[in-house]
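lol ok so funny story. i was supposed to be doing the assay writeup but got distracted and ended up predicting the structure for this chain instead. priorities right. anyway since i did it might as well share w the group, maybe its usefull for someone
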Amino acid sequence: MLEGPRPVRPSEFPGLLRLVNRAFIGNTKGKGMELLYPWHLGRENRHNLWVLVEDGRVVSHVGVTKRTIAIRGVRIPAGLMSAVVTDPEYRGKGLATRLIDFLRARHDREGLDLYLISGNRDLYRRIGAAPVGCRLHFTLAPTSLKLFAHPEVSVRPARPGDLKTIARLYAEEPVRIARPDVDFRRVYHAGWAALSAARFYVAETESRVTAYFVAGVSRKAGGPVDGRLNVIEAGGSRTDLLAALHAACGLWHKRRVELSVSAHDRASLALLTGRHLGERRVPVYDSVAIVNLERLVRRLKPLLVRAAGPAARRLAGGEHNLRPFLEAGRDRLETSRETMAHLIFGEPHRDRPAGLHPTGSLGTILRKAFPLPLANPGISYV
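and the output, tada:
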């Protein structure tokens, strides 16, 4: 008989790790997921690792880390959902769906408004999850980065003593996942981020750290991957960051830098766009699900009023018969959960989902206020 949904018990934790490691890294020996992603699959987050168990054996799992999404001064409670897995012998029975449906209702009661989900499976679309937002990807050659070179900016691997400064620089980003400082320490010591071996690097000006980046590295050599520098996350001064990337190319003999920039990162885009730097739009593979639209709209109200004016105070949201809606006065728009996520946060290549043409004051508010920017998971991705 199945037990759960419930948090994994200490005695079941080794079995959970074996299940997760077999599914995601193909073995149960060596460096497991709990060491690569300690902030998510470590024992300290055990109370957020939800399972179904049969005869003491973990047969399905959904992991959630609770964080806050900051969007230009507005803070939204959210859950980072990943490491979702069911034992092969138990697949096809709806166990993961059972867990996710249970968690969505529970997290709604606890006040979470969003899920950021690693992946885009049918399983997630059942709760209205959709890949949203837009990123621009730049392939930068050393000759292109020479535009940003500065003799007073140097680059070096980060040291443990730099982590507080790195956390502070990240906390100054207007759109971000609000992380505790310990997350940076955990990722630094794990040497792994966003599905890759990785290290932290800092840009220095006059012995002061002004920017940082996290880059994929060679597992054997421990340095940046041969031939290219793949940036997973970056923060701080954008001019110093680009100068540091140019310096890194010279020091490490890199032929190119791969850098993704969120569409809301105006400082980076002001420097990079229009310079023929290999720019292209890239799809976003991770998904967002709205847990409680009514509460989300209330939290977003200061941001919406800044964008659309006092009329946005009338905007309200909710859900009726599993159909979310937005309304302002007599104007109302009702659609699917997935389409609502597209409408609020946008998606690659378009700002308004096909078939949606809101009119009246509601249409004016939506055109001015949406889409909203959303944080790039960066080192928070599992």
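Residues 95-110 form the longest helix (16 residues). The radius of gyration is 22 Å.
back to the writeup now i swear
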